[in-house]
Design goal:
The structure holds 2 protein chains of 2 kinds. Helix content of chain A is 11%, strand content 21%. By secondary structure, chain A is of the alpha+beta class. In chain A, strands 1-4 form a two-stranded antiparallel ribbon. Chain A has a two-stranded antiparallel ribbon with strand order 2-3. In chain A, strand 2 and strand 3 form a beta hairpin. The two termini of chain B are 27 Å apart. An 8-stranded mixed beta sheet of chain B has the order 2-1-3-4-6-5-7-8, sandwiched between helices. The interface between A and B is large, with 40 and 46 residues.
């Protein structure tokens, strides 16, 4: 009987390495935060599909533009009375 | 239940940089569920949008041990992983085996309602300790918007195209949550990511239970619903407000409706905003179909209300 050879390992990748992949270039619109209006409810954080809302010590401090695809969900879910986020056209 | 501030302080287990569409409804569901336990998680995904977009070589968006599955066998994969874990733990061959691990399988509606159904049914019957999460966007969006058994009636898909022959998908959708509950599992529920509290609570509950649990979560798809990415959260909210997607849970056989809208939104108001139903707004025939759909939604909602608080 022939000797069995072990299978070669598949991709040896660190978990979460998609973090290094830039999807910010997909963006046509850019979210802009008005820090004075923001009440840190973090609804934008929980609803962001690209994990782009940066939260430090429970405060919303900005966006991760490496990954933000400019979908505008953060703007839409920002409570109507707060409206701390608005979308502006991305400069090419 | 954790607050958003507490959840935000926990490590992000599903990173950005995945290739899901802008405005996709899936990642908020995954992110929140992965944060709904303090135990470690091992996950697998059935082939689908989530699977292909989160694992394009040489990148992975998963910070938890994650395993690829084919279209039909996510539930079988997670059963195997969970059983292997139990065996190794019993034999004392698992480094760190005393730590608690939760097993989660994710699948789209195609990989759950249709292709993965047999594997899911088998895993539920065998009683493995796992949570199965179905993100239901109502069609095979990854392969080009083909109809699934979760597609809504009279919705346009590429394999049930609305035109002279048929006005979209002819059949009513499969009620998978009820089918899963009929396996007498300890916990099965329907949720929506717009109501993150409800989804988080249900995920926490499901992950704490020892046995097979199931979450059916509605997920907006800008591509297949012909909607705008920024409106994804609003659309799943309307799905709940119209009672098209009721939020309810079946715990140890007892059904509980978690949210009852004060004023039910007419289904036509929601359908009007989606391109997949635009053919229903052109003539009287379409209007009659909308009336039919409303009647059916009302009937299903009433059936659920009648069962509220009852042991099934």
């Amino acid at each position: 009987m022939k000797e069995c050879k072990p299978l070669a390992l598949g991709g040896d990748l660190p978990g979460g390495c998609a973090d290094d992949y830039e999807t910010g270039s997909w963006r046509k619109f850019l979210p802009v935060l008005d820090r004075d209006k923001c009440i840190d409810c973090l609804i934008c954080w929980v609803q962001c599909p690209d994990s782009c809302i940066i939260v430090e010590d429970g405060k919303m401090v900005g966006f991760n533009f490496e990954h933000c695809k400019g979908c505008g969900i953060c703007d839409e879910v920002c409570p109507p009375k707060v409206k701390a986020i608005r979308m502006i056209e991305e400069e090419s | 239940m954790a607050t958003l501030k507490e959840l935000a302080a926990k490590e992000e287990l599903f990173t950005g940089g995945h290739r899901l569409c802008a405005g996709c409804g899936i990642p908020p569901i995954v992110r929140l569920i992965l944060k709904s336990t303090d135990a470690r998680i091992v996950a697998t995904t059935a082939t689908g949008c989530l699977e292909v977009a989160s694992s394009i070589y040489p990148y992975s968006a998963w910070k938890v041990p994650w395993m690829h599955s084919a279209f039909e066998n996510a539930a079988a994969t997670i059963s195997g992983v969970q059983t292997a874990y139990e065996v190794l733990k019993k034999q004392d061959r698992l480094p760190g085996g005393d730590k608690e691990i939760k097993f989660v399988a994710f699948g789209g509606d195609g990989g759950t309602y249709d292709i993965g159904f047999q594997a899911l049914s088998g895993a539920l019957e065998r009683g493995h300790n796992f949570l199965y999460v179905c993100y239901d966007n109502g069609a095979y969006m990854n392969t080009g918007i083909q109809r699934s058994s979760a597609s809504p009636q009279w919705g346009n898909t590429t394999t049930s195209p609305a035109g002279a022959v048929i006005p979209g998908k002819v059949q009513w959708r499969k009620d998978l949550t009820r089918i899963v509950a009929a396996h007498n599992v300890p916990y099965a529920a329907q949720a929506s990511p717009h109501n993150w509290r409800d989804l988080h609570k249900k995920a926490e509950k499901a992950l704490a239970i020892n046995g097979p649990t199931f979450l059916n979560v509605v997920s907006a798809c800008p591509l297949g619903w012909y909607t705008k990415g920024q409106d994804s959260d609003a659309h799943v909210k309307y799905a709940v407000e119209t009672c098209y997607w009721p939020l309810y849970e079946i715990e140890e056989g007892v059904l509980k409706v978690n949210y009852k809208p004060k004023n039910k939104m007419p289904i036509a108001d929601w359908f009007k905003m989606q391109g997949r139903f635009k053919h229903l707004f052109k003539d009287d025939e379409g209007a009659a179909k909308l009336v039919q759909i409303q009647e059916r939604v009302d009937m299903e909602w009433q059936r659920l209300l009648d069962l509220d608080g009852m042991r099934l």
